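Aim 2 progress update. The chain analyzed this quarter is reproduced below.
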Amino acid sequence: MTKPELAIMKFSKFCQSLSNRAGSSKTFLTAVVLIAAWALTGPYFHYNDTWQLIINTSTTIITFLMVFLIQNTQNRDNDILHLKIDELIRATKEAQNATLSLDKMGSRELRKLREHYSSLGEEEQINFDSVEENDAVPKGLQPQSASNDPNQSGLPG
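Predicted C-alpha cells:
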C-alpha cells in the first residue's frame, strides 16, 4: 500500500472513530455541561461581548468541522452499503446484473427506472398472514391490528 493510500485509510478510521464518539450520549452530556457552565459565568462577566464571543466562536468552529466529519462518515457508510447491495444483486440469480451500474445513469433514466419498478408493485399487496410466529420478523415490527388512534404508528417506543 502506498503512503497516500495508508494516510487516507488512517484518516477514514480517525473520522469514523471521531464520528462514533461525537454521536455518543457522553459527548452530548459534556456539551450540555459546558453550555450550562458558560451560561452560569454570564453574571460574573456581566454578559459582555467577549463572553458572548466565546460561545459563538466555539460553536461556529465545531459546527464547521462536524459538517465535514459527518459528510466523510456518510460517504464511507454509503459506499459500504452500495457494495453490500451490489454483492447481493450479483449473488442473486434472478436479479438483473445491469443494476450494478445504476450510478452511471442520469437522473432522467433513474426516474424512468424507478417508475418502472413502482408499476411492477402497484397491483401487489403485502400478505402479513403468511408471516409465521418463528419467522425472522422482530416482535416489535410485526403488523398490528388497525387502530383508530392516529398517533399510534405500530412501531416500538
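Residues 18 and 69 are 8 Å apart (CA to CA). Residues 146-157 have pLDDT under 50 and may be disordered. These observations will guide the mutagenesis experiments scheduled for the next reporting period.
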